[in-house]
Structure formats: structure tokens, C-alpha cells
């Protein structure tokens, strides 16, 4: 078998950004590249885990040695994650669209059908992380929180509130803005558990991902792998 801190463990990581169709050719989406989730999948694989990457519209290639499950919409991502919820580690790194388009059209919309001032109505998507947290499980559930809060203490406080609200075991908190957080840039994350900040890492996404995976491996140490 493989060696490393996560040898014998199964890890599922969602990455990228979900798209919600308006019609067969248009969608509402976000700018997530999937770089952080892909870096995590790569770090987990390097630590010896069997890794599945549930990729939503990735802008970056999936790492070698990782099973890739491609999805587009939030509904598809939810189904892929629920099917794999019994993994030893489940990481929700994807930017999930909070809303989907109500009554998405089966046929391409046109200016004739839409008129001069169309409106797109949205409806709430399920919160996949919260749903995973509500399932009976033995594994470790890791969520992400991208916040724009400039003040550091307030940022961490928002993260702690989010962790509690979602019910995950760990929350990876990062600050995002117009030039922070998205794409292959330097980043800083804090990893939170119910008691507070358990790790603080800065640098390229690959090195931050290794620090997060170290944290996960420490949590799992002492529990038995099947
Ligand atoms: O509430 P917020 O979007 O900031 O939460 C971010 C975390 O929740 C991420 O782990 C993200 O993958 C997850 N999420 C989810 N389903 C949603 C929205 C966010 O699983 N509908």
C-alpha cells in the first residue's frame, strides 16, 4: 500500500465553481478557478490517500493519480458528494452557487422571447456542507469560508460563527477581495475548529494545501482506518 500520513484513508474534495443554467447555452456562475481544491487533492494524494476530486468547471488541470468526477451544477455536485459522504475526509472547497435560476428554459432564450428588460429570478440552493454535516458519519468534514472582512479579529469571529452554523469539524478561512483569494496567487488561511484557530499558513496554494492536509492528518491520527 501507499505510505504517508493519510495512507489507507479516502479523501473526497469538491473544487471549482458551480454553474446554474439560465437556458441550454447560458449560465449564472462565479470566478472560482478550483486551484485551492485541486492543490488539496494533490496534497492528500501525496500524503498517501485515495483521492476523489469532484470538479465543477475547473480552470486548472486535475492532479495525476486522483479520480476526477466532473460536475457542472449545484444539484450535480450535491449528488456526487452525498454518494461519497462516507469517505474518511470530505472537503467542501467548491464555490457553490447559493442560488439557481427559477424555471430555467429548455430552449435557448431569444430577444423575441425575452423582450427589452428581462428579469432572471433566483431560488435558494441547498447548503451541501450543512447537509453533509447532518448525516450520520465517522469521517472528518472540512468546510471553507471566504470572507471579505478586513479586520482580522472580526474575520476569525465570522469563521467561527460559520463553522458552528454549518456543523463541520474544521473550517478553512481565507480573506477574499478583488485581488485576493482567486486564482494561482499567494494566500493565507486559518484553520478553525470549535475551540479556535488550530493552524495559520501563508504562501503558494500548494504549500497552504500541505498545511491543511497536515492538520487533517493530525485529527485523524488515533482513529482507525478500515
Ligand atoms: O456560506 P458560505 O457560502 O460562505 O459557506 C462556504 C462553505 O459552504 C464552503 O465549504 C462551500 O463549499 C459550502 N457551501 C455548500 N453549499 C452551498 C453554499 C456553500 O456546501 N449552497
Number of DSSP-assigned strands = 12
Biggest sheet features = 8 strands, mixed
CA-atom Rg in angstroms: 18 Å
With strands numbered from the N-terminus, the spatial order across the biggest sheet is 5-4-1-6-9-10-11-12
| Shape annotation | globular
- Series of H and E elements: EEEHEEHEEHEHEHEEEH
Topology (elements, then pairings):
Elements: E1 10-16, E2 20-23, E3 26-28, H1 35-46, E4 50-56, E5 67-71, H2 74-83, E6 89-92, E7 99-101, H3 111-114, E8 122-124, H4 128-133, E9 140-147, H5 152-166, E10 170-175, E11 187-193, E12 196-203, H6 205-220
Helix pairs in contact: 1-6
The structure holds cytidine-5'-monophosphate.
How would you describe this protein?
It is a single chain. The protein has six helices and twelve strands. It is α/β, with parallel strands linked by helices and 226 residues long. Helix 1 crosses helix 6 (205-220). A hairpin with a 2-residue loop joins strand 11 and strand 12. The mean pLDDT is 94. Cytidine-5'-monophosphate binds next to helix 4 and strand 9.
Provide the descriptors you would attach to this structure in a database record:
FMN, 6 helices, metal-binding, 8-stranded mixed beta sheet, 226 residues, binds cytidine-5'-monophosphate, two-stranded antiparallel ribbon
Amino acid at each position: 500500500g501507499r505510505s504517508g500520513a493519510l495512507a489507507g484513508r479516502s479523501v473526497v474534495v469538491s473544487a471549482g465553481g458551480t454553474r446554474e443554467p439560465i437556458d441550454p447555452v447560458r449560465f449564472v456562475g462565479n470566478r472560482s478557478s478550483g486551484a485551492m481544491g485541486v492543490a488539496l487533492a494533490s496534497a492528500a494524494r501525496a500524503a498517501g490517500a485515495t483521492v476523489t476530486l469532484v470538479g465543477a468547471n475547473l480552470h486548472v488541470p486535475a492532479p495525476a493519480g486522483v479520480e476526477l468526477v466532473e460536475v457542472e451544477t449545484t444539484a450535480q455536485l450535491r449528488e456526487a458528494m452525498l454518494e461519497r459522504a462516507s469517505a474518511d475526509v470530505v472537503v467542501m472547497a467548491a464555490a457553490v452557487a447559493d442560488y439557481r435560476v427559477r424555471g430555467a428554459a429548455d430552449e435557448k432564450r431569444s430577444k423575441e422571447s425575452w423582450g427589452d428588460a428581462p428579469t432572471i429570478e433566483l431560488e435558494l440552493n441547498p447548503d451541501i456542507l450543512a447537509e453533509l454535516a447532518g448525516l450520520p458519519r465517522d469521517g472528518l468534514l472540512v468546510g471553507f469560508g471566504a470572507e471579505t472582512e478586513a479586520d482580522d479579529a472580526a474575520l476569525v469571529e465570522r469563521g467561527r460563527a460559520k463553522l458552528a452554523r454549518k456543523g463541520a469539524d474544521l473550517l478553512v478561512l481565507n480573506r477574499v477581495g478583488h485581488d485576493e483569494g482567486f486564482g494561482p496567487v499567494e494566500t493565507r488561511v486559518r484553520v478553525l475548529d470549535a475551540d479556535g484557530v488550530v493552524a495559520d499558513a501563508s504562501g503558494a496554494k500548494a504549500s497552504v494545501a500541505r498545511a491543511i492536509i497536515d492538520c487533517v492528518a493530525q485529527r485523524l491520527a488515533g482513529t482507525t482506518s478500515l
